[in-house]
Amino acid sequence: MKYACLTSTVLFVSVAAPAFAVDKAEVLKTYADIAFAKYSDSLTTAQRLQTAVTALVSEPSAAALQDAKSAWLAARVPYQQTEVYRFGNPIVDDWEGKVNAWPLDEGLIDYVDASYGGASDENEFAALNVIANPRFTLSGKAIDATKITPALLEGSLQEADGIEANVATGYHAIEFLLWGQDLNGHAAGAGNRSWTDYAKGAACTNDNCDRRGEYLGAATELLVTDLEWMAAQWADGGAARAVLTADTTAGLAAILSGMGSLSYGEVAGERMRLGVMLNDPEEEHSCFADNTHNDHYYDGLAVQNVYLGTYVRSDGTLVTGPSLADLVALKDPALDVEMQTKLSRTMMSLGRIKTTAEAGFAYDQMLERGNAAGESLIMGRPLRTIAPKPAQQGGNGAHRRFGGWG
User: Fold this and answer.
1) Which secondary structure element, helix H or strand E, spans residue 142, and what is its range?
2) pTM exceeds 0.85, yes or no
3) CB neighbours of 242 closer than 8 A, spacing ≥ 6?
4) What CA–CA distance (Å, rounded) separates 336 from 377?
5) Handedness of CA 329, 331, 334, 335 (dihedral sign)
6) I want to staple 322 with a disulfide (CB 3.0 to 4.6 A). Which of 26, 43, 363, 370 is the partner?
7) How far, in Å, CA of 21 to CA of 19, rounded?
8) How far is 126 from 142, CA to CA, in rounded Å?
């Protein structure tokens, strides 16, 4: 993501100057229109996920579980492209943790492997296992969880005791309930939860199949409700759109803040570089499903499509309009060329990670200590082989390998 580390100050100076051929208010409108389209697509795909989850819980089978997994993966595509609306829009920032909080202590929700451990000084509820315990005490308060509802998840469990790792709602809680833990370390393979974890009667594995289905259904229902709310904030007359468009200068600053913060501090830093530094598969964003390569790719695409003012909807419809690129090109054409070139390079680098992972070299394998190819892919420095120079007198012509852009 290093090419997407936006020089926001330089860009802001450029777009802050009067632009007669491109109306700044229209640029903000494009940004808001794309936000509405992205959150609407996220809602539509979450509703499809809800349909698949309902089918799984009603009639559990291997095929039904796979359908729900496929629906979850499809739902991530538009949602990841909304993350660029974070860091600049307070309404999004205040809400986002409900749907995409990560990482999570999954033992709060369900059974975990013995290697996971238990409660810790940092989180005494890390292994609470709500699915197995219909009644428990949380922060000194008796909790009746005999019926698992969206209100229970949202009101009592999410960030319980003020601990961010107590993630009880959103995409990643659902991901864990569909895939289970990924116990493969740096080896190939995602989580391997069996459909029988939702089976009825004697076929049920790991106990509490009915409550597990109840939790999955409640979490998915809550996700749909949350996305309905956010899509409405970006519709005509919505609060997020109104705040953005109230002041064109502040609105443009919000756009640039979101692009720069997502690309540099969040994705390139916390989600990518930190994983390489720690060589820890737990640093995957979608660690249960092994979908992190797509998370990174669509985050990068989000930055690019905000700059260009374009978004391809889930049904193939193109949403486009006056853009930041238009404003920058009017003031400084060379800077616009530089921006578009670097964003394209970023997408090429993220595309390499995506296609390599889809070919079988998973992201958690890339994170393994000493894996030069994986580190080079993640850090945007693909390895290449350089042909030896002709031997000089007193020297040798041995092959060398080093990191560099191909």
Assistant:
1) strand 141-144
2) yes
3) none
4) 26
5) negative
6) 26
7) 6
8) 17
